[in-house]
Request: fold
Amino acid sequence: MKIGILSCQETCNVGVMTNKIAYAFVNNDTINSVRSLGLPLGIQSMIAVAKANEKFIALNGCEIRCG
Ligand code: SF4
Reply:
């Protein structure tokens, strides 16, 4: 099973830490990084990467939940 991690995207200092933690788990095989800000912007390459996954984990650094 392929799992995509959507972490918040470094828009604040806590987001930087959250993104670094997310990347500690990414192996670009079964666990992949999904650039969550690219999805609402309609960036096709990022959407294609996201669609390659079957399940997703959103990882947020605070209650604003950018991811
Ligand atoms: S979810 Fe919170 S910690 Fe993460 S980027 Fe957004 S504001 Fe920053």
